[in-house]
Design brief:
Largest sheet: 9 strands, mixed
Order of helices and strands: EEEHEEEEHEEHEHHHEHEHEHEHHHEEE
Structural class: alpha/beta
Number of strands: 17
Distance between the termini: 27 Å
Radius of gyration: 23 Å
Helix content: 25-40%
Strand content: 15-25%
């Protein structure tokens, strides 16, 4: 069955080139087929036929923002389903991306029963997988969709030195296996207060920052040895389930996802990543504005936030919305995070807006929750911009989503309309 959707007459922000003030996006079977500056520029035969139908609708006076028109022959019994969506007066852009959260793993209002974020009895747990703990029934998924957020990077928390594997997933569906874009997408590691406080309270290591770094170095050294033995082994090599998760990191397929707040912890994370020649993202990066030039030299990207929260720990006393702008100015690739549920998932575009207010350029604000987030998460071949061949994950807003009074008018995931405002 062919499913076609033509979004037309909106201001199309592609995040991959010039915007189209009266643009259109043609979608087929969940993929973007064309993004053009007008209906008259569509090249595909099916797209042109839909444009012709739209022209007839307009002549008949059947036009208006938010109007969804099923075309003739589109029905449940038909082999094709084609729709026109009028986005007049609206901003059409890539679905928003949350680059670091615990959505579905730490559920709202469920206490211990809904908290599967940290296996805080052992400091090294690389074999844990986010996909085994994400509850897609968590209310945060619906909140995300209503905010125009179409995909998130979700995973374990920061109680452990090595916490487990993150997954990059879509935000609409029941079965987690059907939502996966990339898993594993990163391996979580943590520096600073969280593992230190967790394990010193249990009377075991790590109780200092030195021990955190030492444990991580030990694990990576063991992983290098394991990889060498595996490569040199003849048939019959028995994989070690607890060491296998390190291999995609050592092979450069996924990064370490480093929980870092303080400047000294950021430097330690960079130092270890450089020692082992591995990729890393600097998540939270709270004091990044104090060492922006040094971070830029490292080449590692930053996922900044959550800044819309209290300074409830010593290591976040210098938290400020200016961090993203300072890092961007220094040349660091920046994404924004809510760290849901620390800040609620729906506040993602507002957090980006507050970063813009504090100095991040507007275009960089858009990028921080779309294309930059996709690149940092390693999924930019599928999401993050409106380009031919990418997933049809699209958000339609009444205006700039970083402004408080802007409404999400429509959210589309894989070419399917999953949310529509009653006023659209």
């Amino acid at each position: 069955m062919k499913n076609r959707l033509l979004i037309h007459s909106g201001h199309v922000l592609t995040m991959a080139g010039p915007a189209h003030p009266e643009g259109c996006v043609y979608i087929e079977d969940g993929k973007i087929m064309e993004v053009t500056g007008g209906l008259d520029r569509l090249r595909s035969p099916a797209g042109r036929r839909m444009a012709e139908t739209l022209a007839r609708e307009c002549v008949a006076g059947k036009k208006g923002r938010g109007r969804i028109v099923p075309l003739e022959g589109s029905s449940r019994e038909s082999s094709e389903a084609s729709m026109l969506l009028d986005a007049s007066g609206c901003l059409v852009m890539p679905g928003l991306i949350e680059a670091h959260c615990h959505m579905g793993i730490t559920e709202e209002k469920k206490g211990t029963e809904g908290d599967d974020c940290n296996e805080n009895v052992s400091p090294v747990t690389p074999w844990l997988r986010a996909i085994d703990a994400v509850n897609t029934m968590d209310a945060a998924f619906d909140d995300a969709v209503r905010a125009g957020i179409t995909s998130v990077m979700a995973g374990p928390g920061s109680a452990n030195v090595v916490g487990g594997q993150f997954a990059f997933i879509k935000t609409k569906g029941r079965c987690i296996d059907e939502l996966i874009v990339k898993a594993p997408a990163a391996l979580k590691v943590a520096f600073g207060e969280n593992p230190k406080v967790n394990y010193s309270g249990q009377g075991k290591s790590p109780s200092t920052r030195m021990a955190i770094a030492g444990i991580l170095r030990e694990e990576l050294t063991r992983a290098l040895s394991y990889r060498k033995k595996k490569r040199e082994a003849a048939d019959g090599f028995e994989p070690d389930f607890r060491m296998e998760p390190y291999l995609p990191v050592l092979d450069g397929e996924i990064p370490l996802k480093a929980h870092v707040h303080r400047a000294d912890d950021i430097f330690t994370a960079i130092r270890i990543a450089q020692e082992f020649g591995i990729r890393m993202t600097l998540d939270h990066c709270t004091e990044g504005h104090l060492i922006a030039e040094e971070i830029a030299v490292s080449g590692f990207p930053a996922i900044v936030g959550p800044d819309l929260s209290s300074r409830n720990k010593i290591e976040v006393q210098n938290m400020a919305f200016k961090t993203a702008g300072a890092l961007h100015e220094a040349g660091v690739k920046v994404a924004i995070t809510t760290d849901h549920p620390v800040s609620l998932i729906w506040s993602l575009p507002i957090c980006a807006g507050l970063a813009v207010k504090a100095g991040l350029p507007m275009e960089a604000g858009y990028a921080a929750i779309t294309c930059n987030a996709a690149q940092i998460c390693g999924v930019d071949e599928r999401v993050g911009s409106l380009e031919t061949g990418k997933d049809a994950d699209i958000a339609i807003f009444s205006g700039n989503p970083m402004e408080t009074f802007t409404k999400t008018m429509c959210t589309i995931i894989d070419g399917q309309i999953v949310y529509q405002d009653e006023m659209f």
